Structure formats: structure tokens, C-alpha cells
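Per reviewer request, we include the raw input and output of the structure prediction for the construct analysed in the revised manuscript.
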Amino acid sequence: MVYKTCGDTIAVRLEKGEEIVSSIRAICENEGVKAGTIQGLGAADHSVVGIFDFTKNAYVSNTFDQDMEITALIGNVSTKDGELYLHIHATLGDDKGLAHGGHLNEAVVSATCELFIRKLDMVIERKADPKTGINLMVF
């Protein structure tokens, strides 16, 4: 992992074999990012994405152990109970051009991943919503 900060933006390049979500977490912790936005693209050969199933009140995940293009990675940084909280979604394209996506749980880089993390000068906290079971931003 290599990254460089310019103003409120951190430019990141992840290398083959690095896990994306844990790398973003490490950068945010190292750079003191408590609120921000994330965007990126790249390639992965292991990905876990899911959706929140409201009937089960839990995330349901799909695992892809194949080469996939990360055509879009977008998310945000906030805190929950004072701890760093990442909310990241990704769309992945397979070798037939089909798209798969959802909440990004993990992804291992197969070639490279290029990210930008924009730090916001604020703290955004999350709290569990008793009606839906999801963690909502509160201001």
C-alpha cells in the first residue's frame, strides 16, 4: 500500500494481495479520518458483497472467487460508539460483463486498486435504528 495526502484528500494505490476494506481502515486510523468519502476502482480475485435482508434483520453475503473488475467503489467514513465505521459499496464486473454488487465486506486486490479518501472536518456518529436494524448517521 502506498498513499499520499494532498490537502483533504488521500490518494491510495493498493497492490496485488492486499485486502481493500482493512487497508482503508488502516489509512483512516493512521490519518485520523473520522468522517469522509471514499471512491475507487481496480481489480479483485476474491470479493464478498452483500445486502441487508430486512426479513432476517441481517446481511446476506455473496462470495466471488474469480477475477472481477471493480467498476465502482463508493462509501463513507463515520463513527459508531466512538469507533471508526466504514460503509462501502462496490459494483464488480465478471468476465461476461455481468455486474454484481452490494455492501463490500472484503476484497483482495488481483492487480491494483486506486482509491481516493476525502477527509471531512467533522465527526459523524451512527446509531442503530430500532425499526430497521441498520446503523443510521445522526447529526
